[in-house]
Amino acid sequence: MENKSQELEIAIKAALEAGVILEKYFETEILKEFKEDNTPVTLADNECEAAIKKIILEAFPTHSILGEETGMTENGSEYVWNIDPIDGTRNFMNGIPIFAVSVALVKNDQVVVGVIHNPITHSLFYAEKGRGAYFNDKQIFVSKDGREHAMISISPGKKTDPAKLLFRELYYNFKQGVVSSVRNFGCTAMELAYVARGALEANVQLGLSTYDFAAGVLLIEEAGGTITKHDGGLWQFPDGEFIASNGLFHDVLVEEIKKQKEKLNIK
Questions:
Q1: I need a labelling partner for 105 at 20 to 30 A (CA). Which of 23, 133, 149, 264 fits?
Q2: Per-residue pLDDT for 169 more than 80?
């Protein structure tokens, strides 16, 4: 992309800097800890988040920042950066190279800049609202494959009993002829980036935090994809439950989710 905005340049700079930190720690005996909700955190998570926040606040000192590890740094701004220093921490700390830095800028509940970076695979995805989606500086578009060849992913979302039940039912039933293949990579940011790049045909989100998916949804929108609520209605940020797809069999996914929710009596 030519003539990137300052906001996008800063987001890329922050993601790349965090990537250097992650490369330093990857496949080492890094200390593992677990938060109250049993989600993992490492020294690298905290170091990356600090580096990202420093770069952003030096460039935009009046902006607010929502980080996974440090919560909200509130400056009363209409601009809020959503950052996940390591999306896919379990993969990272177990030496599995499917994780990413996710940096997004939200203005009045609209994602305007999104960057996802996996330093191990040297993958840099970025998008700016109205200007397309890019992978390593080449413009990308969603897949043109229909359901008969489709590989989709499901992101588990909240660790509530209804969400767990729905995840299991969808994972099983999607594999029974609805689509060709179903996956869960343990990294929402990369799953959404893969939909934007055409490596996956769809992703179903069951309720994660905004810093998990903010950058990814912009990539998909700018790559020509479709995002709706589970019932097919208009999706709006920051709703964490949605279907993101290439649009070619979106209605089939909507119907299957509706059927499984009715079966499980989930609203």
A1: 23
A2: yes
